[in-house]
Amino acid sequence: MRNFDQQFMRHALARARRAPLTVVAPNPRVGAVVVKNGKIIGGGYHAKFGGPHAEAVALSRCKVSPRGATLYVTLEPCCHWGKTPPCTEAIFRAGIKKVIYAIEDPHPFMKGKGMKILRQKGIKVEILSPLERGGRGADGVCVHEAKRLNESFFYFHKKKLPFVAVKVATSLDGRIATRRGDSKWITSEAARKYAREKIRSEYQAILAGVNTILRDDPCLCIRKKGVTDPVRIIFDSALQTPLRAKVLRDERVILCVSNKVESYKIKKFERKGVKIWKFTGRRIPIQPLLRRLAREGINSVLVEGGGEVIGSFMDAKAINKVYWFHAPIIIGGREAIPSVGGTGAAKLLQAIHLKRVEHTQIDRDMLTIGYI
């Protein structure tokens, strides 16, 4: 791939990043630019679920005719009818001469079919590969950026399960609250804003336990204009969530309860439009929950606590990514609330080791991001 190709693909990636995942999910984020005579004449991105795709937006915004131009797009153009027409048809009608895209679409309706149709129509097609030059060149960088941009989308279509991340905010000694339950606030306002607006907007659903709801009454929202809040999932075996809890502000809520909960309790929540999912046993089983979420089309979940809920996901080996905020404070005390409950590791060799670790300082706090 030539240097100018890399440059234009980066422009397409930058446009794709403008869309919060909660707005486009379960679709991926996609960006595109149209280039003619070495200049960008149009660009766009998929801005919301059900709206026009990036390719169609880019073509519609061209300042001059796109006939004979090259289209750079971060994901293979679609070739099937859904909520919008096939992008392959729009590309053909616009007279595009060449299409360069970063990575193949893993959706079962796609997997190279878009490339095949474009070539049948006489359009030149290039797809970048992370294997080119050993994955170390700029081509590989663009591919990995494109894949990471939609890591939950790719994981979902490969594993048929949601991509699960956990977000934890602790003191240096790993506590999320004092022995009396005081937790507001361990991290700085800047760190909390980053978690709320940046991290939450990367996930289709956000999950917490009922103790967090009872203790903090969080909204589990993003609070950013034009950005859709994630679906809220609450682990509440005994159905203790107050009817006036902030998480119940609309119908985008799933309460996971024991099948032993009395029906009269359930009906109160159902009248508010809240979904009630029943599970066998005192604790909500992680894998059956994830399979059901997958059937509902939810491809990513951010687990925010408390410690026992996070521990249950770790014990189930169901976590893919970790966001861990460390504040420069020490709480101390045997009875202070730990960040991770559950059974945990018996030996250090069984402990969870993060890969591809990154560290970022936000105000006075340190954010560690890694994969499992």
Automatic annotation (TrEMBL):
Keywords: Hydrolase, Metal-binding, Multifunctional enzyme, NADP, Oxidoreductase, Riboflavin biosynthesis, Zinc. Its cofactor is Zn(2+). GO terms for molecular function: 5-amino-6-(5-phosphoribosylamino)uracil reductase activity; diaminohydroxyphosphoribosylaminopyrimidine deaminase activity; NADP binding; zinc ion binding. Its EC number is 3.5.4.26, 1.1.1.193. Pathway: Cofactor biosynthesis; riboflavin biosynthesis; 5-amino-6-(D-ribitylamino)uracil from GTP: step 3/4; Cofactor biosynthesis; riboflavin biosynthesis; 5-amino-6-(D-ribitylamino)uracil from GTP: step 2/4. The active site is at E55. It catalyses: 2,5-diamino-6-hydroxy-4-(5-phosphoribosylamino)-pyrimidine + H2O + H(+) = 5-amino-6-(5-phospho-D-ribosylamino)uracil + NH4(+); 5-amino-6-(5-phospho-D-ribitylamino)uracil + NADP(+) = 5-amino-6-(5-phospho-D-ribosylamino)uracil + NADPH + H(+). InterPro entries: APOBEC/CMP_deaminase_Zn-bd (IPR016192), CMP_dCMP_dom (IPR002125), Cytidine_deaminase-like (IPR016193), DHFR-like_dom_sf (IPR024072), Eubact_RibD (IPR004794), RibD_C (IPR011549), RibDG_C (IPR002734), Riboflavin_Biosynth_HTPR (IPR050765). It comes from the Bacteria. Residues 3-126 form the CMP/dCMP-type deaminase domain. Zn(2+) binds at H53, C78, C87. One of its GO terms (biological process) is riboflavin biosynthetic process. PROSITE patterns: CYT_DCMP_DEAMINASES_1 (PS00903), CYT_DCMP_DEAMINASES_2 (PS51747). Substrate binds at S183, R200, L220, R223, E304. PANTHER family: 2,5-DIAMINO-6-RIBOSYLAMINO-4(3H)-PYRIMIDINONE 5'-PHOSPHATE REDUCTASE, DIHYDROFOLATE REDUCTASE FAMILY PROTEIN (AFU_ORTHOLOGUE AFUA_8G06820). In the N-terminal section; belongs to the cytidine and deoxycytidylate deaminase family. This is Riboflavin biosynthesis protein RibD. It comes from Candidatus Uhrbacteria bacterium RIFCSPHIGHO2_12_FULL_54_23.
